[in-house]
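User: I'm putting together notes for a lab meeting next week and I want to include a structural view of one of the chains we've been expressing. I don't have a solved structure, so I'd like a prediction I can at least talk through. The sequence is below, exactly as it appears in our construct file.
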Amino acid sequence: MMGIAWELIVFLTYLAAAIAATSLSLWLATNGRARGPAIKASAAALGFAALWAFFVAGFGRAEPITHTALVTSNLAWLWMLYRLFGHDDRDKRLGPIRPVVASLAFIEMTQLAIIGTRLQSQAQPEAEALIVQIVLTLRLLWCIGALVLVHNLFAGASQQARLALRWPSAALGAIFLYDLNFYTIAYLGSDTPDLLEDFRALALLVVTTLLAVGFLRNKSELRFRPSRSFAFQSFSLLLIGAYLVVMVVLAQGLAYAGSDYGKILQTGFVLLASVVALTVMSSKRLRGWLRVTLSKNLFQHRYDYRSEWLRFTDTIGRAGPQAPPLLERAVQAVADITDSPSGLLLTPREEGGLALAARWQWPNIDVPALAFDEAGARFFEESQFIIDLDDIRRGDHEGIPPAACPPWLFTHEQSWALVPLLHYEKLVGVVLLARPPLTRRLDWEDFDLLRVVGRQLASYLAEQSSQDALGDAQRFDEFNRRIAFVMHDIKNLASQLSLLAGNAEKHADKPEFRADMILTLRNSTDKLQGLLARLGRYGSHTDGAIEPVPLRVMLRDIAARYHTQPGSITLIAEDDLMVRADPEALEQALVHLVQNAIEAVDDGTPVQLRLVPQENGALIEIVDSGEGMSPEFIRTRLFKPFHSSKQGGFGIGAFEARELVRAMGGRLDVESREGLGTRFAIFLPGDQRLDLLQQMQDRKKEVA
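Assistant: Thanks for the context. Below is the predicted structure for the 704-residue chain, given as structure tokens.
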């Protein structure tokens, strides 16, 4: 009775495995939403595996048609494995793989000839036993070769490609590892283990489940990138050989436990070995440890410098609309060397110190606006020191000032290393690397390679900065040419209006009309002449005379100028503060900022113009309640010429205002929140501070 129940359970298990594999195969073949590598080959492999399971359930294991279906299923798994290597036509570069695949295919094809031989020798027990031994030997060779290919498929892939390969590799590894255990026990015991053969349907169910999870979740592309393949393949063969030795010893030991207990122990050992193998294959930490251990003991150097350099140039030289910006690629190029999953790039600010310039796969770390102050940036520039932050955490910070390790670095546990980028002994940036899956201390080889890569990256970044500056200069030249045309047209118009005013004085008949026309024309002429004078002074920020300026009077005049516009000005100026400045330049800067504030407000809310007393100077604030600006826009575009958010704008208003204020020894700051508004603050120094700045500039001119 128990035997009949067990046979029914085995039959239902094979039937369930066949149905599951058929369902997934049809879904992969017909559903366009399936994502993953080698979709068609995987669908075919699952279909042939399902056919084999149907034949086992319907005809039994010993029938020739079932053996033929098993051979076909194995060939389909092999084709799927090859397509995983050759996804997206990359098989053209996989010459060493094809002979192995062809050899395994030949080994499996010989099984078809053996099936015919067994039909003719059924009445000869000695010949049947010899054929069984040959079949098992070939099956062992097949399993070993297939496992080696699975190992090389996963170990030789890039870090990004492993996300796509982990589930198919785990599925293939599971089926081949199970067969390796099954045929090893059969070979050593000279008999087929019935219990393990009954459980082969469960192995197919596990493979189907792994593939289903992978195809439902996987959206990554493959990129096969072998490195030091000979050593790693040899090591994988050594591991498989050691595994077979252990299997032989255990099988001989289990033989003494009796047939009943022996089957249970064999089954438990197979399950345990499968779990261990899948755990090792899927663990990044264990793979990292294995790679580091092999590099340390088998090679003179940790890094394969040729492959590292090829990967570096490939990352930096990547182009096209889909490629990340150069700053992000620079971070990735450094992070790939240490297997860091993410990183940041900090670059010098115009005001001094370092600020965040780019992120690579690290969106959740908070970086202040001033990431490193001037002292921290000076330390990296002078010392060229690569900092291991774990050493700082352990208290080993000898020779490293606090400015080089600000507190925000240690609020995130993934912060790991700081790599300076220097070009001609000038700091171009600092890369912050995240902690790799296998944490280790940086040694001299890491420092040497990172220092060389840092200098090379710095040259690329400096070249891009020079190209941007050249582009800005060319655009300035184009802008100046346009201004020359505008000035020419305005001159002609002013001359015509002046002539018209002169003729009107002579020929107008009505005295009232004549007087009104003369007044209007003269006002227009004055306005055009004033515009012409301002355009003629464009760009000469330091030529104006520095003199005492009553700020409240100037702000009142500017507010009166805009009283007819929808966004009126609210003036808050209790004290009449005096500063020394260039009146025309200061007025021009204020007009730029007030005009931008009025245009930013679309609901009629007044723009506030405040005058605040300061120690050693005065502060002028222009505050609006418009849409505001993002930190990214303020950092990268607000003060960049020719980057305008207005249709047809030149994008020089904020840049011009800042340069005018700086030329007078002042400072322009901005604070903004999206949806709340913007505050521009102009600080102008008092007499004593301005005199000191003037003396310093005079000394520089004398030295020059």
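A couple of points you could mention at the meeting. The CA atoms of residues 417 and 505 lie 80 Å apart. DSSP finds 22 helices and twelve strands in the chain.

User: Perfect, that's what I needed.
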